[in-house]
Each structure stands twice: as C-alpha cells, then as structure tokens.
Design brief:
The complex is a heterodimer of chains A (about 140) and B (about 100).
Chain A: H1 2-15, H2 21-37, H3 42-50, H4 56-70, H5 91-105, H6 111-115, H7 120-133
Helix pairs in contact in A: 1-3, 4-5, 4-7
Chain B: H1 12-29, H2 33-53, H3 59-77, H4 93-97
Helix pairs in contact in B: 1-2, 1-3
Classes of the chains: A mainly alpha (about 140), B mainly alpha (about 100).
Chain lengths: ~140, ~100
C-alpha cells in the first residue's frame, strides 16, 4: 500500500520538476481521496493521477479567455462547471475557444479531444495534461 | 439546434465543417496581424452565415460548400495569399435556394 502511493508521488514529482505551492495542495487531495476510498488499488490510483485537477490559475485563465471569446458581460456568471452550450456558445464558438486556448498556452489540441470539451473545467484539465506533456524548453 | 444539456453528438458532416473552420483559423495565424484579423472576421462571418441560413438537411449544398472551402483554404495556406476577398463574393443562388 505504502509502496504504491510512494511510486505515484515520485511520478508526479518527475513529470513536474517545478514544485509550486499548489502542487503540494493537489498532492494532498490525491492522498486524501485514497484514504477515503480505503482501496488504493493500482487502477484507482492511476485514474486519479491521470485526471488530476487543473491548477486554479489555469482554470482562471480559461475562464478569462472564454469570457473574451464569447464577449460575455462582466456580470455574467461563469464557473468551471459552466457548460459552453449553456452560456450561449455554439460549436463554432467552441472551436474558437479551443483555438484561443491553444495560442495562450502554446499547445496543440487534437481534433478529437477538442470536440469532447464541454465545460471550462474539462478544458482546463486537458490543458494541464498537454502542458505537462510538453517538453520543457 | 440540439438540446442544451444533452451531450452533443456531432454528425460526420458537422465534424468536417468544424475541422474546416479550425483549418481556416490555423491558416490565418500565419498572416500578419492585420491580415489575420480581416481573414478571421470574414471566415467567421461566412461560417456563421452558413450555420444560420443553410438547411441542415441540404447535404448536397453543404458538401459543395465544404469542397469550395477546402479549395479556398489551400489557397489561403500559400504564404503569398494575404487576404480573402474571394470569400466576400456571395453567389446570387443564395437567395434562390431557401424558402419558397
């Protein structure tokens, strides 16, 4: 049990050499989830790691871009759970949002995954994953 | 338009249209900022006009638009192309094909 969690912790540390303050907080969340589950099987731990929650600043940035792209009024509510369709974005808007996110984060989103994005949170999670994959220049 | 909450399943043709749109926006990135803005506004207006006006079941016409769009995209990709004035040309058939 202990060895499993240790292995996945080093994995996280390896994939992101720059340990920031939020990094530790997200680690805490992961281990908490295990304790609650009581079933730290290899499968569940892998799953948890792969869909690690995006950093708050990534979510904020995504929100900002979505706002700009859709020209949302400042008072319009936009949460990470907001569905793009619910805030008035059609499929063309979604393409524009994804393109803008690509530029902002300097990543390239594949055709298929971009069509599965329906909320800010999903977009932020995907970005987080792609940014981590990107070789550090 | 599909239900707001149902997970959107796009048809093959819708995917093609969106892929074409993406292609245009990608190609526009390679232009100078001014040209890019112009190209983007034209392309966006063109796609939105299509989304509004073209009957969703008019597959032949949509296929024609897709083919035409692909050709225009190929031309836009050439580094010599800086503007998309050709997209401003709207064939008069537009007014004929809908509503009776």
């Amino acid at each position: 049990m202990a060895s499993v969690s240790a292995a996945s912790v080093t994995f996280r540390a390896l994939s992101k050499p720059s340990l920031k303050s939020n990094e530790t907080s997200s680690l805490k969340v992961v281990s908490l989830g295990w304790r609650k589950n009581g079933f730290p099987s290899l499968r569940s731990s892998r799953f948890r790691v792969s869909c690690a929650q995006a950093k708050p600043e990534t979510v904020d940035k995504v929100c900002e871009i979505v706002r700009k792209q859709l020209a949302l009024p400042a008072e319009a509510e936009l949460t990470p759970e907001s569905k793009f369709s619910a805030i008035g974005a059609d499929s063309l808007d979604t393409v524009e949002i994804v393109m803008a996110l690509e530029e902002e984060f300097d990543i390239s989103v594949e055709e298929e995954s971009s069509q599965n994005i329906t909320t800010v949170q999903e977009a932020a999670d995907l970005i987080e994953k792609l940014v981590q994959k990107k070789p550090e220049a | 338009m599909g239900g707001a909450n149902a997970p959107r399943r796009l048809s093959g043709m819708q995917k093609q249209v969106l892929a074409l749109y993406r292609g245009f926006l990608r190609a526009a990135r390679s232009k100078s900022p001014d040209d890019r803005r112009r190209v983007e506004s034209i392309v966006s207006a063109e796609f939105r006009r299509g989304a509004r006006q073209v009957d969703r079941k008019n597959f032949l016409y949509i296929e024609y638009l897709l083919r035409r769009g692909k050709k225009q995209l190929d031309q836009l990709r050439s580094p010599d192309t800086t503007a998309l004035s050709s997209l401003n040309f709207i064939p008069p058939s537009q007014s004929v094909d809908s509503r009776k």
